[in-house]
Design brief:
Number of strands of chain A: 7
Strand order of the largest sheet of chain A: 3-2-1-6-4-7-5
Strand content of chain A: 5-15%
CATH topology of the largest domain in chain A: Alpha/beta knot
CATH class of the largest domain in chain A: Alpha Beta
Order of helices and strands of chain A: EHEHHEHEEHEHEHHHHH
Shape of chain A: elongated
Helix content of chain A: 40-55%
Oligomer: homodimer
CATH superfamily of the largest domain in chain A: SPOUT methyltransferase, trefoil knot domain
Largest interface: A-B, 44 and 44 residues
Chain lengths: 245, 245
């Protein structure tokens, strides 16, 4: 079991955003969603629809009537805000914040707060946060919405968990053995000898090296080699048919 | 100028997704959007609305009638797909793919292909891609939509660009000088001496060290120290008022 982090939405306005937050969290194995004074029904059908299967997160979400109540059991609070406020507060770029949070989460409970869609977190709430997570964006176009912030933070968090590694132990290609590869190359060489591909025989060593390099670069599988062998045979067949005897 | 990468949407269905893709790209300084056979008007008002200011990307998007035409000038093609196909192809976890792409982009043009919302890229198109980018998600809940895939890939790309660094050279706190800090600590110590805070004087050295540690840990600014000095004065004032003479 990985340590969890808690996402706290403060006065979210749109059910489709709440649903999209649930979906984003579920993708990254995050399940502790808390909502402070939602301005809509968090089980509204639009919320359920945009959660696309993660609506169990909406059903399990705890609703509170104050940030204080929603965060009472947590140790570290991170705020999110789209724009830099005039506030003396440590702004951490998302990847750096997640490194810190991952270490803290070993021994403490972490909450990440998200403000209302239109205004973001009030300064009063930000001042209660220990640090602020800043999502890096193009300074010329900065427009991250609630669910996008959640998905980016969730993604960075997920990359640090054990589940991330478990994602990538499949889909390996199984290389052909050297024996199969050699048989294919021998056949090809023989065909090329017979069709006088090299033209001048002293050029053959270098030309053959270059061709072999193409095939070794390909990381061919047994099936690939059977396919290529079929290609050669098919070309030879049609050539011998079309050639005058 | 950073190297660019090209995002190619193949037969996107929903204008709001195309708009969300444009918005996601603009956040991460990506501007080369190409669309193959869109199944809707890419300048539909829903697309423009969800682009929230990045609709210039929709206006500039090139529309093609085949993947071949859309990718003709590119060197490396990366496919995206939600599920593992039975195909011999290198699947790269997003962070690793972006490292590779960043190196390739120094000298070659890169295209990343995204399939239709419902079905993803057909195997026929995937087989034309050099590699496949896999977005790491919880194996128990994997549901990333088109715009979410774009925002995650855009974000990882952006982190490798020079613009990322430029994002974080502001918002530094300016620490108080040691002289100001010392004046505050001296005043505090004097107040505590006068109010007999230490009770037993031999405990003072350790207690005072602990208190000093709290204040140095705070990374206080000049303004913070003025505020704290005000707090102390206010408490002293009310205390001396309420104390019987």
């Amino acid at each position: 079991m990985n340590p969890e982090i808690t996402f706290i939405l403060v006065r979210p306005q749109l059910p489709e955003n709440i649903g999209a937050v649930a979906r984003a969290m579920a993708n990254f194995a995050l399940h502790d969603l808390r909502i402070v004074n939602p301005l809509c029904d968090i089980l509204d059908k639009k919320a359920v629809a945009t959660a696309t299967g993660a609506d169990y997160l909406l059903g399990n979400a705890q609703v509170f009537d104050s940030v204080e109540a929603a965060t009472a059991d947590l140790h570290w609070l991170y705020g999110t805000c789209a724009t830099m406020r005039h506030m003396i507060k440590e702004y951490l770029p998302l990847p750096i914040a997640i490194q810190e949070i991952t270490e803290q989460a070993e021994s403490a409970k972490i909450g990440i707060l998200f403000g209302p869609e239109r205004t973001g977190l009030e300064n009063d709430i930000l001042s209660r946060c220990h640090k602020i997570i800043q999502i890096p964006v193009d300074p010329d176009f900065s427009s991250i919405n609630l669910a996008q912030a959640v998905i980016l933070i969730g993604y960075e968090w997920f990359k640090q968990t054990k589940l991330f590694e478990s994602n990538f132990n499949h889909g390996q290609t199984t290389l052909a053995t050297q024996a199969t590869t050699q048989r294919f190359l021998d056949d090809l060489e023989q065909d090329l000898d017979q069709t006088n591909y090299w033209r001048e025989i002293h050029k053959k060593p270098l030309m053959w090296q270059n061709l072999q390099n193409i095939f070794t670069r390909l990381q061919l599988t047994e099936q690939d080699l059977r396919s290529l062998r079929g290609v050669l045979q098919s070309i030879k067949r049609s050539t011998s048919l079309s050639e005058p005897d």
